[in-house]
Structures are given as C-alpha cells and as structure tokens.
Amino acid sequence: MVKTLGEDIKKDPSDVHQEFTEVSIRIFCCRYWILDEWECNDLRIPFWRIYHNSISGSEIFFKDETFHLDQDTLLLIPPNTSFSSRLKFKKRNEAESIQGKKFLISDDLETIRLRGAVDHFFLHFTLGFPLDYVHAGVYKLAFNDSLTQLLMQLKAACVRDTITGLQDCLRIKQLIAECLLQLPNEIWKTGNTDPRVIKSIKYIESNFADRISNQQLAETVNMATNSFARLFKTNTGLATHHYIMNMKVQAAIHLLHHTHKTIDEISFECGFSDRHHFSKMFKKVTRTSPSCYKKKLY
User: Fold this and answer.
1) Directed axis angle between helix 195-207 and helix 240-258, to 10°?
2) In 26, 52, 146, 148, which residue has its Cα 20 to 30 A from 275's Cα atom?
3) Where are the beta strands (DSSP E) in the chain?
4) Residues 116 and 53: beta-carbon distance below 8 Å
5) Widest Cα–Cα separation across the chain
6) Confidence (pTM)
7) What is the predicted pLDDT for the residue at 71?
8) Which residues of the chain have pLDDT under 70?
9) Which of the listed CATH numbers 3.40.50.2000, 2.30.40.10, 1.10.10.60, 3.40.50.300 matches domain 195-296?
10) In the prediction, which pLDDT does 236 show?
C-alpha cells in the first residue's frame, strides 16, 4: 500500500509483467441465406469462415475429406484454405455457380427443403497478425448449449436485419471465441514475433494505401533494408510486398461488404494504380474478380 497526500492508493502486488496476445476481431459479414446453387471449385480467401446449415444437402470438400453440412455440423475454416462446395441436389456442372437470396421472415425451413434448397448461415472475419497466418484446414466443431443458442439468436438477427447492433455484434464475437477455443493448439504457428516486425506491421496497417518500400519499413525499425526483409519473411512467411498486397485486398473485401462504393472507388481507396491492376491482384489472392465477388459476396 502506497500513501500519497494522505490517501491510500492500491498497487498491483505482482512484479510479473503480463504481455497478452492481441486478438483484433474484424467482422466482414454475418448473413443467413437460402442457397439454390453452391458449386464452387476453390473458395480460398484471406479470412476465417464459420458455416452452419439446418437443412442437409450441401457438402464441403477439403483434400480427401468430405464434410456434410447439417443441423449437427458447425464448420470453422481458417484463411487461405483451398476447398470446394457442392449442393448435392443439383447436377455437378463444370461452371461455378452461387444462386441464393436472403432468408426472410416469410421463409420456413420445410418449404426450403422441399424445393431442394438449403439454408446457409455464414460468418466471415479476421483476427489480425499473426493469428490469420495459421495452417489450412476445415474443422468440425462440437455443439454445446451455448453455441446452439448463439446460432439461433444470430440467425434471427440476420432475418430481422438487426445483426449490426451492439448486442448482436457481441454475440458474433462470443461465437467466434467459442469456436476458436475448440481448435487444436497445433494450428497456431508457434514462436515469438520479433517486436520490430510487429512495429512494421502496424506501420503497414496505417499506410497500406500508400507506396511502401522495404527501405521505408526498415527505417521505421532502424535496420538495414536487406536484414529487415529477411527478418520480416522469417517471422511472417511472406515477403513484405505480398503481405502489403494481402492487406490491400483484405481492405477491399471489407469495402465490398460494407459500402456501396464502385470498383473504381475501392481500387483508388486501397492504393491500387488503376482498376485493371486492382482486378488482377484481387483475383490472384481470392481466385475471383472484384465484380464477381461483389455479386456473390460469399
């Protein structure tokens, strides 16, 4: 107890410094749809996904595994996982196709099932560095009362269009946390990130729309350019220009979900030289063009 000016001031009795893992949940979308077609060959994208369908009939394929989506299956898929999807009621076509609409108050599960469609709850989000840079995979999670309740509440909020309110945003983050807690420890890449790399990443996050060179980043952490470039790639697994490009595309995806801006406006805001360059880089990262992504928002 420390006394100052006659008052008792409580002091933390522990001398142990606590440095907590930073978890920055950024929600891209939380939607509840009715799918008539869901034929996709490569759904690799730089964000996490949570999927749940009450009606069986759709499938996820990852490597040699098949996951059947139904009321007892909740899937969590890390960023940049290459997987495909299929609605087994439909004929398998070579062309990819996503056809669906928002689940409305007037819709009911039995009518949807009888016409060969499925309901589809999906949640897309990121966690920030380094938690988005994990091993690829598709994880089937165990249900409990809490997850069941959260899914029911979030689906209802999607139908009512209240999903962006404070309480439902907190429920989304609670659902994400409970799902992440079920992941095996091995998924998280081990090792401490060098503080200089963390500092440079914070610089990139604030300035990704500008031209950023290795020399600029190296100067922010007082390192030689080549030494910094090696350190960054060792810590992140990516060269700086690839990391910056992923950041630009991630920002573009967020704008596609949450604004009515045109492709040209988004291209300019995210620091691309022109729409052609934006489309080329977006497709390189996501395997689809910005215009196709905007139409489907899957």
Assistant:
1) 40
2) 26
3) 2-4, 7-9, 26-39, 48-52, 58-62, 65-69, 74-77, 84-87, 97-102, 118-126, 139-141
4) no
5) 81
6) 0.80
7) 93
8) 1-13, 89-96, 189-191, 295-298
9) 1.10.10.60
10) 83
